[in-house]
Amino acid sequence: MPSDDLQAIIEHAHAASATLTPMTSEQLADGRAKAMQELADVPAEDIAAAQSLIGALSQKMPSLVYQLEATGLGNKPDFVRAVIREAKRRGYR
Fold first, then answer.
1. I want to staple 16 with a disulfide (CB 3.0 to 4.6 A). Which of 32, 61, 71, 76 is the partner?
2. How far apart are CA 86 and CA 50, in angstroms?
3. 4 CB-near residues (< 8 Å, 6+ apart)
4. What domain range is 12 assigned to?
5. Cα separation of 17 and 35, whole Å?
6. How many domains does the chain have?
């Protein structure tokens, strides 16, 4: 049974995939800048743990990184925080 955070990640991904329309580079840059502002309080090691988890998951789901970038989901603070919690739960540091 998936954790609550993993379930939230899956729900975010399904919602984003339902409207999979690739974002422009400008939209991605704007989203990234806004996310960095909203996540300014998050330690770098937590971001690194989340990135490690996404890297591991992308080994099983090769399109994951594309989906996160194309939909902008990877820049959504709620999603990033859920990935961080799941990464910590799984022991990523």
1. 71
2. 8
3. none
4. 4-89
5. 20
6. 1
Per-residue pLDDT of the chain (93 residues; tens, 9 = 90+): 567 777 777 676 666 666 666 778 888 889 889 999 999 999 999 999 999 999 999 998 888 888 888 888 888 999 999 999 999 999 998
Instruction: Give the CA dihedral 64, 57, 1, 39, nearest 10 degrees.
Output: -80
AA identity, residue 88:
K
Helix/strand/coil percent split, the chain, to 5: 75, 0, 25
Residues 6 or more apart from 77 whose CB is under 8 A from it? 35, 38, 39
Q: Which of 90, 39, 83 is nearest to 64 (CA)?
A: 83
Element (H, E) at 77: helix 77-89
The per-residue pLDDT for 20 is 61
Cα separation, 66 vs 22, whole angstroms: 9
